[in-house]
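Exercise: predict the fold of this chain.
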Amino acid sequence: MKESIKIWISSLILLPIALYYIFNGGAFTFIDYINLLIHEGGHGIFSIFPRFLYMLGGSLTQLFIPLMFVVFYFVKKQKVLFQLSTIWFAESMMNVSVYVSDARAMALPLLGGNKVIHDWHYLLGELNLLEYDTIFGNALFISAAIIMAIALLAPLYIKEKRYSKIELIL
């Protein structure tokens, strides 16, 4: 009985964090400073590509970096680190969802002020989908909330592997 309760401790600890992110509607939090640095770095990485990919590169990188951690810890069967990474990934999706939803309004303060281009205004405009910005943003946010729930249910599908000290070093 104790072992079955013990595997859910991380989920119980992370539940209020997940609920906070879901119910704050994607409002900017401390972790978004990290997401912002990754996002802007993504523009630098994608600067060698055509303009469309350059504009998309910030959001792609912002999602890809935490997703790499999710996959790594899932493969390594490190349940708690998988859960933390998955919540980070989902929170980053929520952050991007706010940016997508703002494409028409362009009300968010952008790094660089008025002289910079709103990524998602440009991207959705190029695709003639600008009028659907809030639909795409809401879909992304709902997907992120579902991913957070999946993270909390990790004890159902991840049987944590115990590593020796030597394996951890490698």
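Check your answer against the key: The chain has a mean pLDDT of 93.
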